[in-house]
Amino acid sequence: MLHQMNHRGRRFALGSMNKILIKGITVDEIVSWLDSLYAYEMMVVHYSLAVLNRLEGQASIVLEETFDEKIKQSFEHARTIADRIGQLGGAITGDPSRLVEIAPIQNFSLPKSNADVREILSHNLQQLQVGIRAYGGVLSQLKDKDEVTYHLLLAVVKAHIDSEDEIEVALVD
Fold it and tell me: Which domains does the chain have, with CATH numbers?
């Protein structure tokens, strides 16, 4: 069994399959990238709750279910990423105040309107595309180096791309 140090300086043992599957990259790098994506997903949960809490008028009728589902989906993504971090011997950032710092979102903001469906969807689309780009960057670093994490994140980014398509179709209508 291969022993490595995690980002907290504690030794952990990688199973024999992880030893074979991770090559040309350190576990610390993987954990750091995953923690950033975990922070992104938790920011999406917070963002979605904040938007949902503020919806007014027709937007509250049209978008409530969409944001409820986004909250559940992003939390599931965060949990999946946290589980992988744990498998690698790492730990998620425990201090919620640091999530904004490490997430790939440059500026956390809410839509300018709480009632304009188009404005809310456009803003949500911009935030989603930030995440898709962040996942793409991590995927390019993991390809052919950590196939397990690569495929796990590929499934998550596919769900984000599906959401992006849905929003873009709604904005065309």
Answer: 25-172 (1.20.1260.10)
Tokens 């008028």 appear where? 57
Task: Copy the structure tokens of residue 74.
Answer: 């992003």
The residue whose two tokens read 């919620």 is: 96
Over the range 113-143, which residues count as b (16 or more CB within 10 Å of their CB) and which as e? Answer: ebebbeebbebbbebbebbeebbeebbeebe
Q: Are 3 and 13 in contact (CB under 8 A)?
A: yes
| pLDDT tens per residue, range 119-144 | 999 999 999 999 999 999 999 999 99
Rounded to two decimals, the pTM is 0.88
| Distances from the Cα of 143 to the Cα of 20, 123, 139, angstroms | 14, 30, 6
